[in-house]
Amino acid sequence: MKTQKVKGLPIVPPSQESGQYNTPPLLPKMHQVCVAVGKRASGKSTAIVNLIEKMGYDYTIAVSPTMKSNKELMERLNIEHTFEDVDNPNVIDDIKKIVEDEAKDLERYRDELKRFNKLMSEIKKGEMVDDDLLLQFYNDDNFVKPEHRWNGEKPRIAVIFDDMMGSGMYSRPRKLNALSTYSRHVGQMEEGGSIGVSLYFMIQSFKCQTGGLNKVIRNQCTTLLLFKSKDKKELQDVAESVGGEIDEETFYKVYNTAIGDGKNYEFLTIDLHPKKEHPSGFRKRLDEFIIPEELMKENNIINNI
Q1: Which residues contact 225 (CB under 8 A, 6 or more apart)?
Q2: Which side of the chain, N or C, has fewer Cβ within a 10 Å radius?
Q3: How far apart are the first and last CA of the chain?
Q4: CB within 8 Å of 282: residues ≥ 6 apart
Q5: Which of left, alpha, beta for 10 (phi over 0: left; psi -120 to 50: alpha)?
């Protein structure tokens, strides 16, 4: 097959993606849509709390009718907002407003800081001082510098959805679907970019006929935590959903390697958008990469990595 270059039409990507943040090298990208699938008492909550802790979010929003029952575990996170009424159709709107308010406050701070610096520059140079700036920042014989809760940085926010099977939010998912689709674009800013949110769903079944996590959200998944399952159909569904990454035979090999006997809350982590420095998108729990033979050959990875 022959190709021919076309002059003047290169694809120029943006310098940065909306809602993207740096994370420690061995952790997944932020923001993300993470789905943890496991039966009752499989360890989903423990895994998600550990992941959120290590990702370094500034705070978490919890959507769950049973948050108090996991109080000891959830207290490890900085949960600032909790929504227990998962049938309330306004919950998603409230979450969006929290993030949008963060964007407005950051813009307020950055604008005030520019004005404050302008005032300080005028005073230092002995120039005529803008009276409006003086009135804004001079108080009680002191110049008051603008303050911002996150020191001028965009806050990193995670949202947990737990124990919501059969809830109104899942059975009438229009708003939740929309949030999952544009989660990293929530809280857009006039200067460009956005605050964004990461979404973490804890579910007992990958697919459910009614009142479960629907296809729209599953398709937005960037990280999947899969716990031991005896349901062959469920494993088949997961294998098909990641079919673009690995073939079915390799999936089962990776799954069996990760799960083992399943007695110590093992789970398979599938990162569908791994960083380029990661040797694989598959892990046993969070702390051990699983590198299929196909990837080793493709990336020239030696056996004793």
Answers
A1: 34, 35, 36, 37, 38, 44, 47, 48, 51, 267, 268, 269, 270
A2: N
A3: 37
A4: 254, 258, 268, 269, 270, 271, 289, 290, 291, 292
A5: beta
Cβ contacts of 33 within 8 Å, gap of 6 or more: 180, 183, 198, 199, 201, 217, 220, 221, 222, 223
For tokens 């306004």, what's the residue?
Answer: 90
| Residues 272 and 221 sit within 8 Å (Cβ to Cβ) | yes
- Please tell me the pTM assigned to this model: 0.89
Q: Which two tokens stand for residue 201?
A: 């769903």
Helix (H) or strand (E) holding 61: strand 59-63
Please state the φ and ψ torsions of residue 191, each to the nearest 5 degrees: -80, -5
**Can you give the pLDDT at residue 80?**
96
Return the structure tokens found at 104: 């407005």
Query: Any long-range contacts for 10-17 (C-beta under 8 Å, 24+ apart)?
Result: 16/193, 17/184
**Distance between CA atoms of residues 201 and 212, nearest Å:** 11
Name the residue among 248, 256, 46 with its Cα closest to residue 160.
Answer: 46
Torsion-angle region of 105 (φ positive above 0: left; ψ -120 to 50: alpha; else: beta): alpha
Residue 302 has a pLDDT of: 43
Q: What CA–CA distances, in Å, run from 46 to 36, 78, 225?
A: 11, 15, 12
Which of 6, 33, 11, 41 is closest to 262 using CA atoms?
A: 41
Residue 65 corresponds to which amino acid? P
Distance in angstroms (rounded) separating the CA atoms of residues 103 and 109: 10
pLDDT tens figures, 197-207: 999 999 988 88
DSSP string for residues in 226-265? EE----HHHHHHHHHHTTTTS-HHHHHHHHHHHHTT-TT-
Report d(CA 148, CA 108) in Å as an integer.
Answer: 9
pLDDT over 70, % of the chain: 93
